[in-house]
Give the backbone structure.
Amino acid sequence: MTVPNLEILPNKTALIQYALGRSVEIIEQAIADHGYCTLALAGGSTPKPIYEGLAQRDLPWDKLHIFWGDERYVPVDHPDSNAGMAKRAWLDQVPIPAKQIWVTPTTEGDPAQSAQRYEDQIKAAFAPLQPSASESFPQFDLIWLGMGDDGHTASLFPHTAALTVADHWVTVGNKDGEPRITFTVPLINHSRRVMVVAAGVSKQAALAQVFSDTAADAAYPIRLVRPTGRLDWLLDADAVGDLNLPGAHRVAASP
């Protein structure tokens, strides 16, 4: 199992600034290493200020390739759209080439068809970057993830069929009968870097189980995130509380 790097920030503001600084470092290093950076974005309220911070940075935008780890099955202009949030907070404000922003398709009317279409689009995007990816799975430079209070991540929810999909890059997630489009566990786990950012006291119960020796993976799906590359957990003090997380260390300032 991947040994995660756990870092605890004193509050959510410090957490956001730290995650922003870390993200910039990863982007710049990926571009220095191989001339591009592939990013899979997360939804939810916590990533939004990170995206807003990225919009203020001066980065080689033409080297970025943007994807989403999961999406609600709504149009991009819907208030619940992960892509819509990221576009408003960041992507519409910087000159990333439109052909390098791969918004999850959600207009087919058939989630399974949309999932297959998105997988095909990701394969097309990675073909010139990583020609061998078509034979197995691509390696994203960075996948951002959050964690729900129930221990889900992306749209991989407890005890759902999406958790066991191993022969696709993208599949249909299910939240209380509501379809989502989501990366599969193997696709996430082939990433060079996965960064989980979580904040707030509501996360404590799930975190206790995620890092326990006895909890079931199907009950807390983020336990399935075991990338071949590096796994960073960035948490604020409220999320951790009095939990004794193995190997965790506290950070006082941004990198």
Summary: The domain at 11-141+151-230 is CATH 3.40.50.1360 (Rossmann fold). The mean pLDDT is 96. Residues 12-34 form the longest helix (23 residues).
